[in-house]
Input
Amino acid sequence: MTRPDQASPLALEMRDLVKDFAGVRALDHANLRVGRGTVHGLIGQNGAGKSTLIKLLAGIHAPDAGTIAVEGAVQSRLTPHRAEELGIHFIHQDRLLVPTFTVAESLFLGAEPRRFGLPWLNGGAMRRRAATILRETFGVDLPAGALVGELSAAQQQLVQISRALLNRPTILVFDEPTAALVRREVDSLFGVIGRLRAQGITIVYISHYLHEIGEICDAVTVMRNGADVGTVHPRTTPAADLVSMMVARDIHDMFPRRHRTAGPPVLSVTGLRAAGAFENVSLTVRRGEIVGMTGLVGSGAKDVLRCLFGLQRPDAGRIEIEGARIGGRSPSAAVAGGLALVPEDRRGHGVALSLSVRENTTIASLDRFARGPLIDRAAERSEVDRLIRDLAIKTPGREAAVRNLSGGNQQKVVLAKWLSRQSNLYLLDEPTVGVDVGAKVEIYRLIDELAGKGAGILVLSADLLELLGLCDRILVMYRGRIVHDGPAAATDSDTLLMHATGAGAVVHA
Output
C-alpha cells in the first residue's frame, strides 16, 4: 500500500535529522516527508521534537546531521532569510505582532504602500486593503485602524495569518493556529487552508487537536522522543491509534479509574444572575466530586466561573463555600474562602513568565512559609521540590524561569500554585487546552487525586470526551441557563451537544 507521504512529489524532505542541545538529544534521526500541494499534519507530545524540527526548517538552528531538501534541492545552509526566499512562512502559536501597531500597519509591515513612489506611506490605501483582505479571507470586519493590543487573541491570530498569506508562500507552516479561535473562525481558517491546497500551496499543520488533523490533513506524521514513529492516513486511522503512537499507551488508560464517594457540599450556588450573561443558575459541587460544565461560546458558562472567583460581579444570587457565604465577591475573598482558579490563558493570567518555578508555585501561599517578617526558605524549597516531583514538572530546577517550560509544564505550575495553597474548591477553566496528550494524562491524574483527597472540582471544558472521561457529573449551559445536570456515566457526547445547541429538554439542577 502506498504510504501517504509517497502519494505525490515531495515539496519538503527532512531526512535523518539529528540535533543535540547541551548534550540532550532533541532529534534522533527524525524524518518528515511532505507531498507538494498537500496538508500534512505533525503531532506528538510536548518534547517529542516537533518544535525543534520546525526551527531547523526555519533556519533558526542548524542540524548536527541529516539533510533538508525543498522541492528536491538540498539546502546546505538554511537561514531565516533563505527560508523566506524559498517561500517558507510560519504561523506561530504565540502571535508575533506589535501591540502598538494598527491592524493595517501589522499586515503591511515592511511592504507598506507608498504615495506616488515617494517615501510617504499611503495610510488610506493601506487601511482599505487591510479591511478587504480580512473580509475576503475570514469574513470578518476588523477596523483597520484599531491597535493590535486592543484586539482579542482570536482577532490577533487572524491578522497574523493574513499577513503570512500576503507573502504568497509555497510552504506554509501552521503551529497550533486554532488555539485561540472559536468554531466559526476555525471553519473559516479551514476554508482558507482548503483554498490554499487547491492553489498548490503545501501546508504543514501542527496541532494537539486530533479531530482537526482528521478533518483537514491528507497525511500525518507522529513524533515521539525526538524521532518519527510513523506517517499514516488520518481519515482512516482511529484517533485511539494516533494517541497510542504518541504516548506508547492505550487511550483507555488516559482517564483515571475512579473509586470515590462524594461528601457534603463544598460549593452551593443559588439563583445566581448576571444581566446579559446568565440567570437563575443554581448548582452544587460536593467534596470528592468532579463536576464538568460546558456550553457554546456565549452560553454564560465562562461568566459563571468568573463570578464564582470574584472576577465578575453578579446582580443577584448566593454563593456559599462549605455553608459560609462568600463576602465581598472579589478574588481575594474567593481565595480566603478556599477557592482556586486555574485560568484558560495560563501565560496571561496563570503564571508570571519571568519568575521562577519556585516563585510562581508559592506566590499565592507565602503566608504558609512566613516566620514573622521572614520567609522560611528551606520549607518553601522543600514544598516546591515536592510539587515538582508529584506533578512530574519537567524543569531544569526550581529556579528555572517559567517562560522556558513547555505549555503543559506551565499548566502544571499553575496547578502547583494552588496545590501549595491547599484549596478546598478548584475552578478549572479549560485545564488542558493547548497541551499535548501526555500532559493531559498527567493533569487528569492530578485532578482525580485532588478529588480523592476531598477537594471539590468544577471543570469548564469544550472537550466533551474529556468531560465524559473525567467527570462524575456534567452541567450544560445554553443561553444563560443550565439545561442539563446529570451523571457522566448516563450520557454521551451527542446528548451533551444536543443540550448545548438548545435541542434538548431543560433539566433543572
About this structure: Residues 4-247 form a domain with the Rossmann fold fold (CATH 3.40.50.300). The radius of gyration is 24 Å.
